[in-house]
Design goal:
The chain is an all-beta fold and 102 residues long. The chain is built from no helices and 8 strands. The strands form 2 sheets. Strands 1, 3, 4, 6, 7 and 8 form a 6-stranded antiparallel beta sheet that branches.
Length: 102
């Protein structure tokens, strides 16, 4: 997660799968940022206080036919054109959205 400028923005959300999230690690989180994985490993929840730098997560899945993503910016749904998926820069049609294995 990031944004233009240095003003504080809070990003939060959840990733949910019927499979399992494994190898979850944080990317450049600072003191007020948090992430957690549910005990059954089906959900990742996060909250990042961001001043324009990078905050993020790395993860892998096992037996996950799909992942549902929900993103919020300062408590409001994130506009889908503000979400970029992959190196090609694809935008989902809405937020929340689901990516299924092909």
């Amino acid at each position: 997660m990031t944004h233009r400028g240095v003003a504080l923005r809070t990003f939060s959300g959840e990733l949910v799968t019927t499979g399992r999230f494994v190898g979850v690690s944080s990317v450049r989180l600072e003191g007020h940022d948090s992430r957690s994985v549910s005990p059954d490993h089906h959900t990742i929840s996060f909250r990042f206080e961001n001043h324009g730098a990078i905050d993020g997560l790395n993860f892998r899945t096992r037996c996950a036919p799909s992942i549902a993503f929900t993103f919020l910016s300062d408590g409001d749904s994130l506009a889908s054109n503000k979400v970029t998926i992959g190196h090609a820069g694809t935008n989902p049609t809405a937020d929340p959205f689901t990516i299924a294995r092909g």
